[in-house]
Amino acid sequence: MSTIVLYNGKIFTGVALLDNNTVIIKDGIIEEVVSNERFTSKDIPKDAEVYDMNGAVVSPGFIDTHIHGLKGYDTSDNSIDAIHGMSEALVEYGCTSFCPTMYPMAEDDFLKGIKAIADAMGTETGAEILGHHLEGPFVSRDKHGALDQKFMQEVNMDLMKKYWEMAKEKIAIMTVAPELKNMRELALFGTKKGIVLSAGHSDANYDQMVEGMQAGILHSTHFFNAMRRLHHRDPGVVGGIMIHPNISCEVIADGHHLHPAIIKLLLRVKPIHKIVMVTDALRPTCQTSGKLMANGEEVYYSGGLFKKVEDDMIAGSSLTMIKGVKYLNDIGVPLEDSLRMAACNPATVISRQFDKGYIIPGKTADIAVFDKDFKIKLVMIKGVIKKNNF
Fold it and tell me: How far is 325 from 342, CA to CA, in rounded Å?
């Protein structure tokens, strides 16, 4: 039986932030969290690996449920190698699990991309793939954002069933526009199959949002971005998310997609466990050489965002999960709330009974450790140390 001891850390268990505590891990499973005062040498097996955290923060591993690419890899490469590349790269940023996210493409390419993700699952060596996130194609052309309008379409249940089969029944999340015709049929299908339906790229009015929620659309994609705004005569998609406590929402915490005051407002009106931090990161995120490409177009990096070379329009995010946690800390969000949004809440929202997102006995040892400067020091996935800078 192998034992790893993470000694003298500031442990965020998912329930509380505990100073001067120690985590004991046996065979990849959290065995115990104990205070340093209670922890003695007799608690350590002779063959145990012991690491002194020196007061660093020991958190459940981050879970990114909305990410398109990283370090030159992208889901649109439609290859197993690209998904594996994302998996390995994510470890550097404290991410231990993720949902590779597809955006609308030509049908054959979309199906190839879905298959590549399905085939990569179970053979990845870095962050674990928890399932697909399909961002479309059943979304609104009026709220296309950075997505290509020509690949968006009305609900097609035959096509949806084909996606499900090609994904080997591993679709975790699907972004949809609640106002589309036949959306109720799609929502009911998703609910039966365990797919989390997420309102996004949507021009739904408030009544359509409520109808969607009643059909099972209980999550939402990149809050405020590419959705109908709040209006005093029609609360729209944004209002529906803010008014109803049972719908959860993604936030891109980079200081660009949402003003810090909006994040603080959201924290006042939404239960903390209903807010999920995502990166929505694109292929060139953390890429250090070569031409920067995103969504098939050349982009350039500008002040934390990628913008299109052609017209200077925002192409998308360059965020990593640890950068998001640091940003939230910088604007005054309590650390434990930031970590809930990055680790605990994603695991809960996906709702497939994953034993992740917490450092409590019986849970899988997926762990990210970072210092006071928010530098990742150690990453553990299923009890195996993947990165160690101690």
Answer: 7
Which residues of the chain are under the pLDDT cut of 70?
A: 1, 41-43, 352-353
Residue with token string 């994302």: 86
**CATH number assigned to the domain covering 62-350:** 3.20.20.140
Grouping H, G, I as helix, E, B as strand and the rest as coil, residue 166 is: helix
Pairing of the two strands 62-67 and 73-74: unpaired
Nearest-10 crossing angle of helices 157-166, 107-120: 30
Task: Give the tokens for residue 303.
Answer: 């002040």
Q: So what's the pLDDT on residue 370?
A: 98
The rounded distance, in Å, linking the Cα atoms of 125 and 345 is 24
Q: What's the confidence (pLDDT) of residue 43?
A: 66
| Cα gap 63→95, rounded to integer Å | 6
Residues in the chain: 390
Q: Position 233: which residue type?
A: R
- Report pTM: 0.96
pLDDT of residue 302: 85
- Paired with 33 in beta bridges are 23
| Spatial CA neighbour of 6 closest among 63, 61, 62, 56 | 56
Give the C-alpha separation, 267 to 163, whole Å.
Answer: 35
**Which of helix, strand or coil describes residue 328?**
helix
Burial class (CB in 10 A: 0-12, 13-18, 19+), 29: middle
Query: Phi and psi of 386, rounded to 5°?
Result: -100, -25
- Which candidate, 128, 136, 159, 156, places its Cα nearest to that of 76? 136
In 3-state terms, what secondary structure has residue 272?
helix
What pLDDT, in 10s, does the model give residues 182-192? Answer: 999 999 999 99
Q: Where are the domains of the chain?
A: 3-59+357-388, 62-350
Position 132 scores a pLDDT of 98
Residue 341 is classified by DSSP as I
What pLDDT is attached to residue 279? Answer: 98
- For 3-59+357-388, which CATH superfamily applies? Urease, subunit C, domain 1 (2.30.40.10)
Residue from 65, 18, 290 nearest 171 by CA: 65
Which residues touch 259 (CB under 8 Å, ≥6 apart)? none
Q: Distance between CA 71 and CA 83 in Å, rounded?
A: 11
